[in-house]
Design brief:
Strand content: 5-15%
Number of strands: 2
Shape: elongated
Strand order of the largest sheet: 1-2
Amino acid sequence: MSQPPNQKDISAEETLRRAMDGDVLHRLPSGLMIIRRMKHEWLDQLDEISGDAFARKTDKVRGSKFLRD
């Protein structure tokens, strides 16, 4: 992660755990910033719904472009 030299390195997992929605996770040398958006993260509760219900919740109307696998 891009951090000032006086801060110790922390793992990517720790950075993600600390980050709030909209926080910068990483800055690339080009200036591009990787932002945390929780709406794009997998939720464990999605493992428990049926395939049909999952398909309805992730159809194009609701805006999701992600697949279970």
